[in-house]
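Example 3.2
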Amino acid sequence: MKKIIGLLSAFAVVVAFSSFTLNTTPKGGGDDIIGLWEPSNGKARVKIEKIGKKYYGKIVWLREPIDPDTKKPKVDKNNEDEKMRNVPLRGYRLLKDFTYDAESKEWSNGTIYDPESGSLYSCVITKDKDVLNIRGYVGIKALGRTDTWKRIKLKKKK
């Protein structure tokens, strides 16, 4: 009898843990964009993370991290705000405040900053497998431009 009660208890724990895990791990949800991404120009890598209930992306790698003119790390020299022009690009948060809408399967209500032009755009993100479609726009989405980012898969350490 003790063995049966022990087995039932173990079974109950496994079932309870499994249902907890299934209910808290999104599949095909908002967290699908978390990870490392490369814009189509290949000049940078952006790490997307979730902070609270919103998604953010920051530059974590640059193909050319050193400014050839100054021989120092590249900074946000094109920013409209003069106070920001000395901020290093590596570590710069260029995607901000995105929320996920499960119905439309898109991340919206955020902004994307283009350090090459110094411009800030409204933005919407959609995902297809390991590709993000990043659409920056001013005013209405139809007048924007879409860039395709690909997921960078990190090699597992042995």
